[in-house]
Amino acid sequence: MNNENLQYLADNVKYMGFGEKSKADIEKNINSGKPDFQLHLKTEINNKPFETTLNFRKSDTSDLYFFNSYHASLNKGSDEKVEQTFYLNKGKGVTAKEAFNLLDGRAVHKELIPKEGQPYNAWIQLDTSVTNKDHNYEVKQFHENYGYNLKEAVSKFAIKELNDPEKEKLLLQSLQKGNLQSVTIEKDGNTIKMFIAADPQYKKVNLYDASLKPVVRESLEQYQSTKQLVNNSVKQDTENDKKKEAKQDSKVMKQKTEKKIDSLLP
């Protein structure tokens, strides 16, 4: 057995977020000489059962084994189960926690490495309404030129953590991993525990109450920052001014038309 290969696989599994307890099982399977083998792991995240099957395969040209992909399934309750196979490229890819977040409906910011070409950064999200020929959900991508500014979206709310640069950094990093992140909202001199998640498709963040229930659009304003409320007011005034101008222009055009018609009458 190639001990370096064993250690590489154990480290890779650990780096991808599957823990450190699989080394003995990997060693046992390698010693058996199988052309391929699988490891089945079960855990629970946020009270939701999460299962993964890690796929290993022996090289066709050497005795080395590689961790090529894993299948993940999440039981979201009410008999709703979502599954996806995630592929690794040179030992890198979507981590276990990121897979959970994707299957739970959130987006993840990743450096993507195509088989050909330069790596690039993008937000990815599963489209559970569309599956491909491999029975996987289609993956939506939102590139940097899509125009989503996470920091700007977060700053629209009166989040206490934004007052501390280090806490702000950790908050943004957590959201980029697709986490449903707890935050403290400051409102009327009081603090309220809430949760937020990135929503790159609509260039915003989603807000949830302490019970993880989504805050409806009509109620969002009460949690917004003073700066955002001022911006909303300015925006509304601008829109009202435009409506007034449009109405005035319409009135002027009507008057001109009426005058023109009158001049043509005998």
Overview of the molecule:
The model has no long low-confidence stretch (mean pLDDT 89). This protein has six helices and ten strands, in the order ααββββαβββααβββα. The strands form three sheets. The protein has a four-stranded antiparallel β-sheet with strand order 1-2-3-4. A three-stranded antiparallel β-sheet has the order 5-6-7, covered by helices on one side. Helix content is 33%, strand content 33%. It has helices at residues 3-15, 23-32, 96-103, 150-154, 165-176, 226-264, and strands at residues 36-45, 48-58, 65-77, 80-87, 108-112, 120-131, 137-143, 181-187, 190-199, 204-208. With 266 residues, it is an alpha+beta fold. α1 (3-15) packs across α2 (23-32).
